[in-house]
Write a structure and sequence with these properties.
Rossmann fold; globular; 7-stranded mixed sheet; 181 residues; two-stranded antiparallel ribbon; alpha/beta; 8 helices
Length: 181
């Protein structure tokens, strides 16, 4: 069974977090949220989420996928060495990492994008190219075990691609139908 973690920092982009959590749970994906600091995590637009776990509990777990939402909270993700350690464990173990909006810049910060094909929020292109990544600007890009997406408007597409990877195309299409897309 898959074991998915979403790391939340104050200032996370709510659509990117909540829509992805919702779609994955509709697909029966085991996803938990982990907060960098407090149990209540404050979104960029005034929506607060109670995280399932603290970041300390994430350190000794093995995840099928690690998901990073964007928003101003990305800076805290870049600055937290626990996030870097989890990313290194995921990428080094050939497991999935998914990042949306400005969150691919977290991977750039840790030097994990060299030679990878990615997308991200408009305005992050230079940072991603400086990390020697091939920036496409597409809605969603899958490069082996790395999934990136452009922003809030692509959150559902991003989530459905994650469902396809973890549960298969049939489950993704089933969820898509339930969302009336």
């Amino acid at each position: 069974m898959e074991h998915v973690a979403m790391i939340l920092a104050d200032g996370f982009e709510e659509i990117e977090a909540i829509a992805v959590i919702d779609v994955l749970r509709r697909a029966d994906v085991n996803i938990k949220t982990y907060s960098l600091k407090n149990k209540i995590v404050h979104g960029a637009h005034g929506i607060n989420i109670e995280a399932d776990e603290s970041m300390e509990t994430a350190q000794n777990q093995n995840f099928t996928m690690l998901i990073l939402p964007g928003g101003p909270g990305v800076q805290a993700l870049k600055e937290d060495p626990r996030v870097g350690a989890l990313l290194e464990k995921q990428i080094g173990g050939g497991k999935y990492v998914a990042a949306i909006c400005a969150a691919p810049t977290v991977l750039a910060e840790y030097g994990m994008l060299k030679g990878r094909t990615v997308t991200g929020y408009p305005g992050t292109e230079d940072k991603l190219r400086q990390a020697e990544a091939n920036y496409t600007g597409s809605k969603v890009v899958i490069d082996e075990h790395l999934i990136t997406s452009r922003g809030p408007g692509t959150a559902i597409d991003f989530a459905l691609e994650i469902v396809t990877l973890l549960k298969g195309a049939a489950k993704s299409e089933w969820v898509r139908g339930k969302l009336a897309l």
